[in-house]
Structure formats: C-alpha cells, structure tokens
Amino acid sequence: MKKFIAPLLVGAALTSAFGADESLKQEIEALKAQMAELKSAQAKVNVEALKNQLSEVKAHDAGDNIKWTVDFRTAYDYVDYKIQGSEKEDNGIWTNKLILGMASQPVDNLVFKGSLAAYKAFGQNNVANTSYFQNFDWYDSQKPNDSTIRLREAYFLYFGDLGDVHYSASFGRRPSVDGFLANLRNDNENPASPISHNINMEFDGASFKFDFDKVTGISGLYAKLCLGRGFSDTTGAYSMNMNTMGFNPAYINDENNPDMDLAGLIIQFFDNGQYKLMANYFIAKNMMDMNIHGIGGMYMTDPSNPFGSLTAMTPIYNFKDVGDMTGGALSLQVNGIGDGISDFLDDSIFFLSYAFSQTDPNGNAAKGMMGTTTPPYMALVDMPGMLGSTDKKFGSSIYTGVQVPGIMKGQRLGLEYNHGSKYWRSFTYGEDTLVGSKLAARGDAYEIYYIMPVVGKNLTAQLSYVYIDYDYTGSDTFFGWTGTPMDVSTMPGAVKTAQDLRLSLRYRY
Q1: Which of 60, 132, 240, 260 can pair with 231 through a Cys bridge, CB separation 3.0 to 4.6 Å?
Q2: What's the rounded Cα separation, in Å, for the pair 246 and 40?
Q3: Domain 46-508, second-level architecture
C-alpha cells in the first residue's frame, strides 16, 4: 500500500509547484480523501488474525488426508534342506512383497498409523493345499502366499504429558514385526516396537508407554506395557454345530479352543544415540497345540520300511490349552564402536542379546499322532505337557552381530550369529525368511548380508545368505507335543540343516 501512496504524493507536490489549475486541485483533494479512507480501512485489518487463519488452512490441507508410502521388494530365494533319512530338498522361488504404509494426524496429540501388505509367489501356487496353517494371523502378511492384500498394522496413538512424563496410549493391530535388532538385517532405519530376538509376530492388542528421561535425567529411559491376543476363542457366523448338524449362534464361545493372551513389559534403560540398552519380560497365557480327534486314510504303504511313504492324511483338529510361558530378553546395540578411533569403527554397529523362555504345563493332554506296528500304523494318543514334558523347562538363546561399511559409500555388510538351547522357545513366526525363523533355531544359525544403494535410499539391492544347523526339532511350531525337541540326527524326516540364499531389489518412497 505504501508503494502506491508515495508516488502519488510526489506527483501531487510537483503538480502544485508548477501551478496546477483549480480542477486539478480538486482532484488531488479527492484523492487525499480516498487515501485517508484506505488508511483507515487498513488500520482496522487484523494482520495477525489473517496469518493465523492462513496457518490453519495450511495445517488443515496438510493433515486432513492420509499420507501413503510404498515399500516394494522383488526377490529370488534359493532354499535348500538336508533331511534325516531322505534326499535333500531344494527350490528356487521368485516373490513380490508389497507394503503400503499409511499415516494421518488430525490433531496434535492423535496419530493413526497402518500398513497393508501383499506377499506372493510368482504366478499360481499350491500353498493353500499343502499347508494347514498358512493363513495364521501371526504371520499372515510375512510369508509368501497369494496376491490378497492383508492388514499388517492398524493402530492409533494418543499422547500427552503428565508433568515431565510424556505418555502415549495405543490400540489396534500392533507394529510388532521387524523390531529392535532385526531392523538391521532388514535394512529398516526405524525398528518396530518389540525386541525381535524373542518376539517377532503379528498380533492385536494395546500398549501404554511412559517416558522417564526428563524426570530421571537418564537419556532415553522409558517403560511400555504391552497387551496382546494371539488367538480368539469364538465361532464365526453360520458356523456348524456337529452335534445337532445345525448352525451355532454367531460369535459365541467356541469352548474347543483357548484364548491365547500375552502381557509384556518393555524397558529402554538407556539410549544416547551411541549406546542403546533394552529389555523385555512377558507372560503368555493358554499356550496351545493341535488336538487331533480324527484322521482320514493314513497308513504306511510298506510297514517293513520305517522311512516309507504314507498316504495323504486329513486331520480333524482343534487346539488345546497346554499351559503358560514366560520369557525375556536383554539387548545392547552400539552405534559407533569406540570414540574417534577410526572412520570405519565410527560407522560400525555391534549388538549382543540374551533371551530365555520358561514353560509352565497345566496338565492338560492334547491328542497327537504316534507310530504303531499294526495298520493303520498311526494312532492317536494323549500327549500331556509342554514341549514334550510335564515338567517346567528352561530354554535360552544368544544373538550377536555386526554391521560395517561396505566397499563403496552407502553400502553395508552384516554378519550375525545365534544359538538356541534344547528347550528354547521364541515367538518369531513373522521373521522375514523362507526357511523358518533363524532366531527360533534350537541349534546354530549364521547370516551374512550385503546392502547396496542403486538409486539412493529409493532403490536398493541386497544379497543375503542364512544357514541353520539344527540340534533339535520343534523350533518354531506349537507349544505342546508338536514342539517336542528330538535329536535331528536320529529322527526320520527331521530337518538337519536349512539354507536360504536371497537376492532382492527394493523400492521405497
């Protein structure tokens, strides 16, 4: 406005100086009156209010939508197994894995986050016909199947402050796969919630987090209470009642299957950017195993050959509550080894983790299969206990690794090792591998991987190799008789070693 006023005043002064006529003077006076009116109107404008309104509009436009991200990976896996008493089994598998991330924040203290996933083998496959539990909710979007888009995560975060204690509460489908430590091998900068050494699976529940760093002065200190459900005891709509051959009322108590619940506490003791120390402790209730109460057409074709073939079986089963389980982990990650020793060590990462599990059988017996010497050469017998024992059993695992700079800028080389004892039991169904969870292994597991940026962080390539040398069976099955640890060197059909060589390209935006 001032830019217009100044030239007009100068023009008016010059005109007066050169003797303008009476009509020009009248026009100038009228112009002065108009300028006075404009100044008065301008004075009434609340500039700060206009700025605030503009900020609100911008914030509304930015927040009144869902922000989407894309994470897409094409991979080739060569899997190889050595099986006791049989020829080795191997295969080459091409897969596509798509994760669509979403987030929104309508107000300052409320956030929604979620992700949808599709993970499939190339073309058609017969996975659904060969696996009874392929679509278990614990790893539904973490193992290749078909092109169906599944819910991977969906939760809201409500947060605020209680004095110097920042808190958050969250309900929904949890961010519980690819957590702390696993994020390194998966090339994810930000880990999900749990410690991946003993918990890496999809589940639904809630969490309540409290930050105590300001109160205590300890960098990064927080505690998080986590609640989850791994199995819901309910019938579905139009479910059949086998006793009456009619329909059950919908969503009533199933009675044949247990509610499987978990409560855990995660504590981050310290995190100053270089050193990060975390721990968890959990109680898992009503652990289950298959309770088979019927088998159709199963017999050994040649009873004199214990390694002979069996006819196809059609088990009729539900799940039986066999007891509870507790466990925990203590994990340390060091980002930058030493202090200024060398650029190589400054850019290196080291971690070390210890985890344990403890069973608590309740005396219930699930019916399982046992071989016999008479037709049909298989029988259903009561299998009490957990992991093949009616006594409490303690298991443990160690997990360590390093990640160092690669040959060229931005490249990373990783080396990892873990060992599990005879009765070690993890919840790592959602681990990103095709040969079974390496962290669940009752034995030794080794991994080497190399990450190479192709187009910055948007397109990367990764080559990885996992080798698992099992000592005992039952590493990652259920919690009763199917999880019984048996010596792989004497058990027919047991997997002795497993290998997975993967080459992948990954796009992220």
Answers
A1: 260
A2: 83
A3: Beta Barrel (2.40)
